[in-house]
Design goal:
mainly alpha; Four Helix Bundle (Hemerythrin (Met), subunit A)
């Protein structure tokens, strides 16, 4: 197993740790969860960069990397809903978009086509990670909570998520 794939697997291993830290009443759990979440999110860029630089791209990495990204965001969103810090409809919209685009990629893969991540798709990921981070940190930084900054950043992430999903479907029509 190469280093980029090992980084991706490590990101997946971090996900249950983040969830436990978010959902249990452990001293400094929120800070630790936010720190590990940010670290895990940043490794997404690192594994892809290293795979391309070292010419170590693999089929496993091509499948595992987006799965790891979706698991990380999904786990964080569901945890935030459980904590009452995020409306369920937001999680459903974001997770639903991820399932829809993944389904589109599967259909296109069966046609022998690969759908690469678009610039809007990358912006979507950045916006989601930023929104989750702000909501996770709001409880620690009272002025952010008072302004409900996390909710506004999450609304922006939802719009970007939807636009990105629509873009994927418009550019990659499914033939029947």
């Amino acid at each position: 197993m190469n280093i980029p794939n090992s980084i991706t697997i490590f990101r997946i291993i971090l996900i249950p740790i983040i969830v436990v830290l978010m959902l249990t009443n452990i001293p400094y759990g929120g800070i630790l969860a936010a720190t590990i979440f940010l670290f895990a999110a940043l490794t997404d860029s690192l594994d892809g960069y290293l795979a391309r630089k070292w010419k170590q791209t693999t089929k496993l990495g091509a499948i595992l990397d987006p799965v790891a990204d979706k698991l990380l965001i999904t786990a964080a969103l569901i945890s935030l809903v459980e904590l009452g810090k995020l409306s369920g409809w937001i999680a459903i919209v974001i997770i639903g978009r991820e399932f829809a685009v993944t389904g589109l990629r599967v259909v296109k893969a069966e046609e022998g086509l690969v759908i690469p991540a678009s610039k809007m798709g990358k912006l979507k990921t950045i916006s989601q990670v930023t929104a989750v981070m702000v909501i996770m940190l709001e409880q620690l930084i009272y002025p952010l909570a008072k302004l409900q900054l996390g909710q506004w950043v999450m609304y922006i992430a939802v719009v970007i998520t939807l636009v990105s999903g629509i873009e994927y479907f418009m550019k990659n029509k499914i033939t029947l």
